[in-house]
């Protein structure tokens, strides 16, 4: 599927996601404070884990609702 004109040619969805560094499978997540005010929107769970040095399993459990908070924040899927 072609998306847009770039340098005289069209690029497909796969190329676009490579260029933007975001997979189409990524699910954005929200980092909220204890009062549920938005702190930051992350493009993916992996991005938050890498930037904040979080434990993958613990963040996953917080996103599923099994932990009320993780590292002092509430985590939700967008």
Describe this structure in words.
It is a single chain. Helix content is 32%, strand content 28%. It is an alpha+beta fold. Strands 4-3-5 form a 3-stranded antiparallel sheet. Strands 1-2 form a two-stranded antiparallel sheet. Strand 3 and strand 4 form a beta hairpin. The two termini are 26 Å apart. 9% of the residues are buried.
Q: Termini separation (Å)?
A: 26 Å
Q: How much of the sequence is in beta strands?
A: 25-35%
- Strand arrangement across the biggest beta sheet: 4-3-5
Unreliable segments of 5+ consecutive residues? 1-6
Q: How does the major sheet shape up? A: 3 strands, antiparallel
Count of runs of 4 or more consecutive helical residues: 3
Give the assembly state of these chains. Answer: single chain
Overall outline? globular
Share in helix? 25-40%
What is the H/E string? EEHEEHHE
